[in-house]
Amino acid sequence: MLSIADYFMPPLANFEVQRAQMVPALTALRFANAALDFAFYDVQAFSRTLARDGVELDWTDAAADQPVQEQANLSAMLNPEGSILIVNAANAPHVLRFTDFQTFVDALASGVHRVEAVSVSGVGSSALGSAALAWNVSTAFQQPVAAIVPGYGLADVVQQALGGWFGFEMYSYWIKQPVQDILARVAPDAATIGRQLLATTPGHAVAPGTGVPVFRRGSGSSDVLHALLRLANNFTTLVGHSKGALVIGNAIADLPDECLERLHIMTFGCVIAENTHVKRYDQFLGTFDALGFLNSGGNHAEHSIPAWHSTNTESSLSMRVEQLVTLPATEN
């Protein structure tokens, strides 16, 4: 017996937005979000440090027809569908890109890259902001850090339209999964945009009949992080800023105890519920961070600091991630 959704699928499919029509709009939106990265992440300091090593970052897509150093290209054109970056503040190459889940896991298993920390940036951030946040953490720990770059697609456009940049992040987060499920059925070609990395994770969920990757834990980033924590036992530290904290909270929700007991979770600008028994929580919320309070849903932070929502060290009253992530346990 046909369901109501199945009954309406054929006519709706005839009006599907084509992939070629969506890509320019998504690229433009990613470019706009890269501009926001300058406000919320330590992009300027990150860029200057790389420049001293002779690496010039490109995030504008203006040099798409010119050769650009692979590690320096953090543009929307090269990072439109989600990727994992290994960011190493101490040694070159400073940025390595992985767009396939198993390739990243194999690189870790080979021992070539010793990575123990994962960072997740907030909603609206691009590869530029993700790399800058990971750079702060890598500088503090003097170790490479894996940064999960949010995938970007049609579902994210709907989320942004509903106010996902700022104080409504938590509500948008719960809206995003059902939106993706619907789009996967009625506009499968366009819905695959932004799901490249998710599609390479083992056992990922797909929409019936279309095969489009869909979310199990609210977002593609949560699904990717969950799979990483299950398959690789080297990760001990998770750092999330803003919506990145919500990504972490959903990713760890149903992990086995042997995965949880090694994890130290640090969040900035969003406090998640501490109902999952990990090794340690350190959550930071600024006293002037109205966005962070809205995102936190009443959860209590271990650390209240005189700061607002930004981690950009060139901004007044910003959260200094490089300093805060190394706080000793005695200061909890």
Quick tags:
332 residues; alpha/beta; eight-stranded mixed sheet; 14 helices; 8 strands
Characterization of this structure:
The protein is an alpha/beta fold. It has one domain (4-61, 70-325). 41% of the residues lie in helices and 11% in strands. The protein has 14 helices and eight strands. Strand 1 (83-87) and strand 2 (95-98) form a beta hairpin. Mean pLDDT is 75; it is low at 7-15, 63-68 and 163-168.
Spatial order of strands in the largest sheet: 2-1-4-3-5-6-7-8
Number of helices: 14
Question: Biggest β-sheet: count, sense, barrel?
Answer: 8 strands, mixed
List low-confidence stretches. 7-15, 63-68, 163-168
The fraction of residues assigned to DSSP E strands is 5-15%
What count of structural domains? Answer: 1
The H-and-E topology, N to C, reads as HHHEEHEHEHHHHHEHHEEHEH
Alpha carbon gap, first and last residue: 58 Å
Mean pLDDT: 75
Report a brief summary of the structure:
The protein is an alpha/beta fold and 332 residues long.
What topology emerges from the helices and strands here?
Elements: H1 4-13, H2 19-40, H3 43-52, E1 83-87, E2 95-98, H4 101-109, E3 117-120, H5 127-141, E4 145-149, H6 154-161, H7 169-186, H8 188-191, H9 196-199, H10 220-231, E5 237-241, H11 243-251, H12 257-260, E6 264-268, E7 280-286, H13 290-296, E8 303-305, H14 321-324
Parallel strand pairs: 3-4, 3-5, 5-6, 6-7, 7-8
Antiparallel strand pairs: 1-2, 1-4
